[in-house]
Amino acid sequence: MWIRESRAMALAAIAYAALAAGCASVPAGLPVAPGAASHAAQASEHAAFAGGIPSAMLPGVAARLRPTGRRGPTGPLRASRDVNSCQYYGNDCATYASAENVLTYSSTLTKGLVNPQGTVTDGKGNWYIANTGRSNVLVLHAKEQQTTALSDAGQYPVAVSVENSARLVAVSNIYTTSYASGSVALYAGGSVTPTSTLHVADFVEGVGIAIDPSGNCFWSYNDATLGDGVLVEFRDCAGKARTVVSGLGYAGGVAFDKHGNLYYTDQITGVYRCAGTRSCGLLSTGYGDPLMINFDAPSKVLWVADATGYLDAVDPQTGTILVSNPAVGGASDPPFGVAPDAGPRS
To answer: Which structural domain range is residue 120 located in?
Structure first.
């Protein structure tokens, strides 16, 4: 019942966005808001539904109960890399010190952030933040200790991926700021403005984005025409999309391990793993809302931002949740994105 109701709410949100963008009618297969007298009324309902700035989180997720019996650490703890997360509601990103996947809160970044969501780090230690409410991607440079912004004017960015040498950055836009269809903005060669843009034909709500080790772009989105979540590939981050996965309940994050195996989330059912980009199957369950994901540098741990208030360290081979860390903001200010310090992927 919960899955059926949440899926209906999710599809309604996409439908309202389509109407807000000026579509003549709700795309086929999507519900119309009961009692909505006009397109303007439905657009207004969508704005309220999305809280003004759209988020990638599954609508109605606050009603979902977090499973009990979560696992904690065993044995002595050894120092590891930091883990970063971003919180949409609190307009902030947090850094944790990690020891054997057990996180200890360290600091909070707030300057310049408005409704941040997806986040990632590159092999040089630079930290990228999809700064949704400001229509940009903030880049915190590790060595220079300065911040620059990649302009994403007219868009609502919700996720970001970077090729490990930082030569290409890909950004998933959930919608335009006028609620037209989502897209992928690409930044090549150090440009701070998009050098190209990727689209699909349908009206979609962009969610996750990942660049694989071969330089191909993989984008997950919720498709208003199909009424499903979809994951597609753009070969060489260009041209037309090829469908990799369809039929998702509600699209979520996307990531690759260092061997080129695809991982993605369905916010309703859990985390999936593929052999390369084929033979995909459900790997891990037991989350409240598995929103965004990212690997540590050696691909030994898959980190999951659970939008019910947790940062989970997951064994990418077995799907076991090794440690479930309560996020500093709890359920009221949950993590939308997670980014372990990447370092060189050797």
So the answer is: 80-340
